[in-house]
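so my prof wants the structure for this chain in the tokens format not the other one, which i didnt know existed until like an hour ago. anyway here's the sequence
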Amino acid sequence: MALEITTEQFAHCDLVKATGRIDSQTAPQLAETFTKIKELGRHKMVLDLSGVEFISSAGLRVLINTQKECQQLGRGELVLAAVPERIYETLEIAGFLPLFTLVDDVLHAVGGF
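here's what i got, hopefully its the right format
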């Protein structure tokens, strides 16, 4: 299944919604989306994972790299919202949970900035 990505800009952050699978084929597409937002000088992002059914190590790398770039110089953060249990378990097994703020729903994540 392909990956669909939509973005929405708010006053204090950008919302990125991913739907489908984030794997070695689609991870570059997600990375490019984050890069375009960062090039606008915006480093506070919320990633809505509610529609994601699978994330591979390539996808996890994109999340980690984006988080590092957003947090450099205290500029921002990548917040993960509406994380499905399966994706949560993947993050937990990889040891990545401490690296991210996880929020139950998108509204609270966006409002948190």
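also thought this was worth mentioning. The first strand starts at residue 4 and ends at 9.
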